[in-house]
Amino acid sequence: MTLEYHRATNVVAGGTDEDEVRTVETLPVPFKDYPAGAERFPLEASVAGPLLEAGAGIVRSREAPSTGRTIYFRGYSSAGALYPVEAYVASAEGVFSFDALGHALVRHGGDVRGPLAQAAATPVREAFVILTGIHARTGWKYMERGYRHIWWDAGTMLANLLALASADDLTPRLHTAFVDRELNELLGVDGRHEYALALLGLGSQVEAPPNDPSNSLLLSENGPGYPLAEGAHAASALHDADAVRAWRVDQPGSEPKLSRDVLLRAIRRRGSVRDFSPEPIPRDEVAEVLAWSEAPIPADVPPVVRQWVTVNAVEGLEPGIYDAHLKLVRPVPEAELRRGSGFAAMEQDHPRLAAFDVWQMADLDAVGARLGDRGYRWAQLEAGIRAGRLQIGAFMRGWGAAASTFYDDEVSKLLGTEESPLLMVAIGNRG
Ligand SMILES: Cc1cc2nc3c(=O)[nH]c(=O)nc-3n(C[C@H](O)[C@H](O)[C@H](O)COP(=O)(O)O)c2cc1C
Fold it and tell me: Which fold is adopted by the domain 272-428?
């Protein structure tokens, strides 16, 4: 079912991923509309509040000339700046929405960590962050393919949250297996227009608190239906705690620990860079950025993404196709490679101009055989996390980076693989 969704939303050479008849009048607002009387808490009410502000908060804004509206850019990249991912916090003080615009936590109801942990068949932690996706926000531009974007954007956000939580000694653990219906109900979302994507456990384990699942503030979403995406999402749901336990494979290891200050500076400075200088960049630093991107993710599911690198201008490396450890797969003349990368990335310039491009790929048939339909969600999410780490890693070194969409089959042809592209990131010195 998820593979059918995937194939149906592939874009062929010369095609587009955009709804070309959309109008700005119907552009969705990328924030929840909180009632005036909503109960607001300072971000510091939970360890998750400052974490979300640092990793998923607003970093800059500007007026969009075409609409006159203000675009609020966030610490993570989001296709089309449509921000379809919302974050909720569950802690001892209750369950909250992260209000990025108001820099506050908006309380929905009581402490639901007990039932929430049960839904993911995991012990209760000091706090949980739960991410949800709202298809209509990204569907406005990307229609059915927007379902992929939800996972990618959640991934770029999670790359920040995992890294910052590790820097703060919060031992983050990502749960992708949970009983969908239970988690959605605890958040008061309908599971169709808005649905839980992932759960991030933070801080030490605590005794299960008494259940207080009252949910007084309900902020329901609506919008058009996306039958293919809804079918894929329903097919990949888990229906009870036994199914959660049977599916998951807890991964050993923890999130790499980087300097909080260095991370914060990079996240604040990050913004998609699409013009690159032709000067080559140092091979050792490219290897370091790739190593962080490739590092294990502390999750309940094994990695399925393989990253391929097309090297245009890296010191000491001949232009060509490489694996993530910079082992040469096949040399390709630079001009041909640049042309091919730009074309495969939906005929855009930034992948052509970049010093190197990293392509997140997966054998989706093998993912399905090993992890079932749920594995499809993870493949897209993992691609987003690895792409998010690449972007922050690039900014940590003073380079620029931007993600890109693509013509699906053209990427596989460029790399000479049967694997399917999930996402890509272009990286280099700013032009
Ligand atoms: C999954 C994904 C796909 C993207 N695809 C493209 C793309 O094809 N072309 C492009 O110029 N930018 C692309 N971007 C970058 C977004 O447009 C950018 O993140 C957004 O406008 C917000 O701006 P910022 O990254 O500067 O904060 C993509 C970002 C993501 C996360």
Answer: NADH Oxidase (3.40.109)
